[in-house]
Amino acid sequence: MTDNTLGFDTLAVHAGAEPDPATGARQVPIYQTTSYVFRDADHAARLFNLEEVGYIYSRLTNPTVAALANRVTALEGGAGGIACSSGHAAQIMALFPLMAPGCNIVSSSRLYGGTITQFSQTIRRFGWSATFVDTDDLDAVKAAIDDNTRALFCETIANPGGYVSDLDALAKIADEAGIPLIVDNTTATPWLCRPIDHGATLVVHSATKYLTGNGTVTGGVVVDSGKFDWSASDKFPSLSQPEPAYHGMTFHAALGSMAFTFHSIAVGLRDLGMTMNPQGAHYTLMGIETLGLRMERHVKNAKAVAEWLEKDPRIEAVTYAGLPSSPWHDRAQRIVPKGAGALFTVAVKGGYDACVKLVDSLNLLSHVANLGDTRSLIIHPASTTHRQLDEAQQVKAGAAPNVVRISIGIEDVADIIADLDQGLTAATA
Ligand SMILES: *Cc1c(COP(=O)(O)O)cnc(C)c1O
C-alpha cells in the first residue's frame, strides 16, 4: 500500500497499486476475471465473513477496480472508497447505506441536470425524497433538515458553472444535525479541492469527466472520510445495528472507520450491482496519472478564455468564479484556491439564434453533452439538455436561451480563443 502522505502528483501515479505480485507487471493489469480460486474451504468462509480481505466475485471486488478505488481514496484523503459503474451509480451507492423508505436528503438546488432528475423523480420510487434549497441561504438549509433527513448534498463547483459551495459552512450545519455532508467533487477534482478537508463525510465522483479525462469511460467513485460516528444516533441502522441483509453483522462495531466502505461492497454492490468494470477502471487509472498536469492547464486556459470573453463586446456575461466580477470569487479563493475549475457559462448577445449559430460554427470546440475532456466542449442547454423546460425554468436553472456552457480543454489557448472568435463573428453577423 502506498504511503498516503506523499504529494498529490506522486499519489496520482502510485497510490493503490504496486507491481503485480504474480508477474511484476509495472502498470496495473486488467484483471479480466469474474471469480477467484479460494485456497481452501476455510479461506472461502473467512472471506465471506469479512474476517479476511480478498477477492470473491467481481461484482463485489476486482484487483483493477480496487486499485482505482484506493487511488481516488488516497487523492481525496479518505479512509475507503468504492468504484461504481457511473457517477449516477455513485450517488445512489452513497445514499444507499444511509436511507430507508420515508427518509429524505436536503440538497443544493444548483446541481448537474441529471442529478436534479435523479433526486426529484427517480429516488421517490425507493420511498426516498429530496428537498432542494439555495445553499447560500444557510437558514433555509437548517430549516429544511427534519427528523427524517439523512444527508446534506451539494457540488463543490456546481453546474452550470461559476457557483462555488461553502463546504465549511454546510459541513457545520450537517454536523450539528448529526448527518453526513455528501459532496459531488466531479467538476473540481481533488486537485482543486478535497472536500473531506472542509468537513465532508462522503465524496462522490463521476469518473467519466476529469478523472479519466479523455471521454473514454463511464464510471463513478464514492469516498468515505471514515470520520462519521454512525452509532451516535439511531438514524443509520444499516451501519450501527445488526444488518439483516448481511447475516446480522453490525458493520460500525465490527469495522469502525471502514464500516461504510465494507457495507457498500458487501451489501450495496452485491445487491445493486452498480459495479465498475476492470477495463474501465484501467483507463481511469491511466487518466488519473496525469490529473494534476491536466487540471493545471485546464484552469489556466479557462481563466484566459473567460477573461477574453468577458471583455468581448459580443458577450453579455460570463459566469466564472475565477473572475473578480463573480459573486463567488472570494469564496473560490478559500474552497478552490488553485483555480475555479474549467466549466462556465457565457451569455451571448443575439439570444437563442446566436447561440445555435455559434455551436454550429465552431471547428475546434465539439458540440457534445459532456464535460471534463482534454478537448474543449460546448453545449447550448436551451436547445438540448434543458429544452424540456419552459423559459422561466431555463432561466432559473442558469440555462437561459442566450446561454452556452463551455468546458475548456487543454489545447493551446490561442487556438481555443481563435475558434470562439470566428464562431462569435459568424453567430452575431
Ligand atoms: C456527469 C456528472 C454526473 C453523472 O455522472 P455519469 O458518470 O454521467 O453518471 C454527476 N455529477 C456531475 C457534477 C457530473 O458532471
Automatic annotation (TrEMBL):
Domain of life from the UniProt record: Bacteria
GO CC term (a single one): cytoplasm
Keyword Transferase in annotation: yes
Residues recorded as bearing N6-(pyridoxal phosphate)lysine in the entry: K209
Gene3D superfamilies linked to this entry: Aspartate Aminotransferase, domain 1, Type I PLP-dependent aspartate aminotransferase-like (Major domain)
Pfam families cross-referenced by the UniProt entry: Cys_Met_Meta_PP (PF01053)
BP GO annotations: cysteine biosynthetic process from serine; L-homocysteine biosynthetic process; transsulfuration
Keywords linked to the UniProt accession: Aminotransferase, Pyridoxal phosphate, Transferase
Matching InterPro entries: Cys/Met-Metab_PyrdxlP-dep_enz (IPR000277), OAc-hSer/O-AcSer_sulfhydrylase (IPR006235), PyrdxlP-dep_Trfase (IPR015424), PyrdxlP-dep_Trfase_major (IPR015421), PyrdxlP-dep_Trfase_small (IPR015422)
Cofactor(s) for this UniProt protein: pyridoxal 5'-phosphate
GO MF annotation: an example: cysteine synthase activity
Family: Belongs to the trans-sulfuration enzymes family.
PANTHER family on file: HOMOCYSTEINE/CYSTEINE SYNTHASE (PTHR43797), HOMOCYSTEINE_CYSTEINE SYNTHASE (PTHR43797:SF2)
NCBIfam families named among the record's database cross-references: OAH_OAS_sulfhy
Entry protein name: Aminotransferase class I/II-fold pyridoxal phosphate-dependent enzyme
Origin species: Pseudooceanicola spongiae
Lineage, broadest ranks: Bacteria, Pseudomonadati, Pseudomonadota, Alphaproteobacteria, Rhodobacterales
